[in-house]
Design goal:
The chain has 111 residues and is of the alpha+beta class. It has a single domain, classed as Arc Repressor Mutant, subunit A (Orthogonal Bundle). 55% of the residues lie in helices and 16% in strands. The strands form two sheets. A three-stranded antiparallel beta sheet has the order 3-5-4. β1 and β2 form a beta hairpin.
C-alpha cells in the first residue's frame, strides 16, 4: 500500500510528519544560527546575562544592531530578558539550541 504524502507535510526519520509550522520554526532556528553576529551574541550570552549596552560594547557592535538581532532571537524564544529599571538584561532561553551551538563551535575549533 502506497503512503499518501501531503504537500504540506514531510516525514522525518521516525516516519512522523512535520507540519508546516514545525518546518518553519526549524528553518528559522537554523537561519538564526547561520548569522555570525547572532552566533557571537548567543555565544556571549551562554556565559552570563548581559544588557544590550554590554553586548554592544563587548562585541564592538552598534546598539541598534544588537537590539535588532536580539529581537530576532527573542521571537524564536532563543533568548529572554528581564527588566531592571530601564535596562534590559538578556540571557539564553533554550538549552537545546545552546547545546547545538556549543557543539558546532567545538566541532569548528577542533582540527
Amino acid at each position: 500500500m502506497k503512503e499518501d504524502i501531503s504537500k504540506e507535510t514531510t516525514k522525518n526519520k521516525n516516519n512522523a510528519y512535520l507540519d508546516e509550522e514545525t518546518l518553519f520554526v526549524v528553518s528559522q532556528t537554523f537561519k538564526a544560527l547561520s548569522d555570525p553576529t547572532r552566533i557571537r551574541i548567543l555565544n556571549l550570552l551562554c556565559s552570563a546575562e548581559h544588557s544590550v549596552n554590554d553586548i554592544a560594547e563587548t562585541l564592538n557592535l552598534g546598539q541598534s544592531t544588537v537590539s535588532h538581532q536580539l529581537r530576532f532571537l527573542k521571537n524564536l524564544r532563543l533568548v529572554k530578558f528581564r527588566r531592571e529599571g530601564t535596562t534590559l538584561y538578556y540571557s539564553t532561553d533554550d538549552d537545546h539550541i545552546m547545546n547545538l551551538l556549543t557543539q558546532a563551535i567545538e566541532h569548528a575549533t577542533h582540527t
